# Entry
Amino acid sequence: MREAIILVGGKGTRLRPLTNHTPKPLLGVAGTSFIRHQVAKLMDAGVDHLVFATSYLAALFQDEFRDFAGLEISYAVEEVPLGTGGAIRNAGKLLRGGPDDPVLILNGDILSGVDLRDVVRRHEARGADVTLHLTRVADPRAFGLVPTAEGGRVRAFLEKPKTAAECVTDQINAGCYVFRRSVLDAIPDDREVSVEQETFPALVAGGGLVYGHTTDDYWRDLGTPLAFVHGSADLITGTATSPLVGPPAEALVHPTATVHASAQVTGGSTVGPYAVIGAGSVVHRSIVGERVTVEPGVGIHESVVDHDSVIGAGSTLRETVVGCHSHIGAHNELPPQLRLACGIRIPAGGVRVTGTATACLTAHRVTGEQ
Ligand code: GTP
# Structure
């Protein structure tokens, strides 16, 4: 038996409002929930028992996998979030393997091309306590760093570097680990524990056999809106791969959606069930949800429009997140990085960056009037 844990209990605050009612791993990416891509990848790696470490909106995971037959799934529920380390320990109670068996652990928000079988093989060949997948980043300043010695042994887990001199490596924790079962069982589960800030540094300080496996495979943390839309688009265009996605394509349009012949849906965009894309509209590297109406002449770029929303004619969205059941009137021009709460209504011409806003509709007192 090969066992795995996926950490799915986080609140996903950076992806609000999408995560207000849907946990991040259950959000739609390239036509299906992100977690299903991960589960398919684990199955390809030979995993036959999977534990979900849940907390936030835990019941929704059981709903999603109620009729799933591909592998056995167990659910560990934290009444109070235990942090990544506490969650691993808590989920570990549902594992069935022996003390030396390897346990694969994935963060529930990382899209990665790493070969999971290879990571486990290396872990076993070294007799390691923990093996981490490491990836390289162009700008290490935003991450905790993981320098390794010749042969891959982890030297330290360093806080985010503040100066150039502190950027001693470009390797970071890629959110995929293999633990020896007995090492995982030693993590406390009665309080919040961060695996990165507590468990790993303590293991290294205590002389534990902690190894890094650094690869240049595709890797993206889908935790922010822009990363989320790019991850989805990369899966469709074939830059990233999943067992659940077909051959590379420009877009994934649900068979029940209607796209006008003069509209363009490009760059790996998805258009969900019963959505309508009007004449002359452009949807580029974006996610358009179920039952969304995009009226004619709209531009949607690197954005997410959640289900049951309407984007009015001639409006433009860039790097925008529109919550569900929203109504953006015609000729709005939404500036980058806006997040619109669920159910928001913006009147026609209400928000513009360039050009003229709609004429004032308020009755003003004229000078001299009593
Ligand atoms: P943000 O709030 O936007 O930072 O997102 P997040 O809550 O998902 O946090 P983060 O991205 O740091 O979490 C990395 C992974 O660990 C995600 O898959 C989370 O679901 C998971 N995770 C984080 N904290 C917990 C926790 O306390 N319990 C469990 N079970 N999982 C957690």
About this structure: Helices lie at 34-44, 59-64, 83-92, 116-126, 181-184, 195-205, 225-237. The mean pLDDT is 94. The first helix runs from residue 34 to 44. The pocket of guanosine-5'-triphosphate is lined by residues 7-14, 24, 53, 55, 78, 81-84, 87, 107-109, 223 (CB under 6 Å).
